[in-house]
């Protein structure tokens, strides 16, 4: 049995869970909904203590992982579960920028995050560290794929029992990339929203720590590190514009919170960062609400190849809408064909192979540039949140085949000639 830690006795800088709607406060336990108004709970910090504790120097002296920001995360221990998550590359994307006709473009590359190659490693590292503090010995999640990978891997590292729930139609790479760590995997006949509903019931009956249900306030704070890292990697300043994918909307709202906290602590200068969101047309309830100027979300039934972001009833959708509007950003959707083209475009220009969520984000970036909604001079950061090796079926049939030859020089020369002819034909088709 792991020992539960009393946050008042340790290095904790967070003080309570606070309802985002009515402001009611709760002890920082495994809770996620307000019992008065059913609003979501969020972690509240002691910012005056934080401003004494956190400086650029103290952060720079920390580990090259999300834990360099430990005082800004909702864990009490000085010994968190650190599997090297975070501090992923921020890449200046000159070739992609030129192709799109803009000047200052960066890719935040969480396709190479540790240990499971998606941004979910951030939220899970935080959630499982907190789960251990709260005394949970079994951890769980409702997942569209990446979260199952992260929860299973990091639970294995931490020696926690693990049971994950996924929709039964996920990509092979996501399923295999979960099973390998040896958790119990429950594949549910149904979409993510149905899986999530089932998990809420299980959370009530089994006393497990569900990273994105009863531990959600802690879990979601992990996404703030995507904001912190970008600000730090830009030389302690905020970008002008960010583009990020939206599933539940949580990641989007927490990048915003991360930037705001850095301003509040005097780590960066204040400025309005424009927030633009990306969804796949086959599951775009937030983009639809944005387009129709509604301030409520109408749930949809997902039908897209971008399964990792296919959440039909997004918990943080209204908060994401609000941020896009008040920062003069946009929320756009792209179709599945554009998603595939987005994946190829990023691979061919920057050497980064992303999954369907990243394809959605790149295709949305392109659409925003073409519509004049991104200024060519703006410092724009695009968040690439997952790795393409996990969603290979999405691009199969769209990327050609290897040239298969005999082990002879003339066989090679003929193949090369053939491929050049094919290239010319393709160019002729483009020119016609
Ligand atoms: C989960 C996920 C997201 C979005 O997460 P939310 O915080 O729910 O909006 C984006 N990209 C990838 C690859 C994901 O797995």
Task: Give a brief description.
With 432 residues, the chain is of the alpha/beta class. Helices cover 39% and strands 15% of the residues. The radius of gyration is 22 Å and the shape is globular.
* CATH architectural category of the largest domain: 3-Layer(aba) Sandwich
Report the mean per-residue pLDDT as an integer. 95
Largest sheet: 6 strands, mixed
Number of domains: 3
From the alpha-carbon coordinates, what is the Rg to the nearest angstrom?
A: 22 Å
Describe the fold and architecture.
This protein is an alpha/beta fold. It folds into three domains: 14-82 and 120-219, Rossmann fold, CATH 3.40.50.1100; 90-116 and 223-394, Rossmann fold, CATH 3.40.50; 402-432. Helices cover 39% and strands 15% of the residues. The protein has helices at 47-53, 56-60, 94-100, 120-133, 146-158, 172-179, 192-206, 216-221, 224-233, 250-264, 285-291, 317-326, 336-350, 356-370, 409-431; strands at 14-19, 25-26, 41-45, 90-92, 104-109, 138-142, 161-167, 184-188, 209-210, 241-245, 274-280, 331-334, 379-384. A six-stranded mixed beta sheet has the order 4-5-13-10-11-12, with helices on both faces. Strands 8-7-6-9 form a four-stranded parallel beta sheet. α10 (250-264) links the parallel β10 (241-245) and β11 (274-280). α9 (224-233) packs across α10 (250-264) and α10 packs across α12 (317-326). The longest helix is centred in the C-terminal third of the chain and has 23 residues, at 409-431. It is globular, with a radius of gyration of 22 Å. It starts with 13 loop residues before the first strand and ends with a helix. Pyridoxal-5'-phosphate (PLP) binds at residues 118-120, 146, 245-251, 308-309, 355, 357, 385-386.
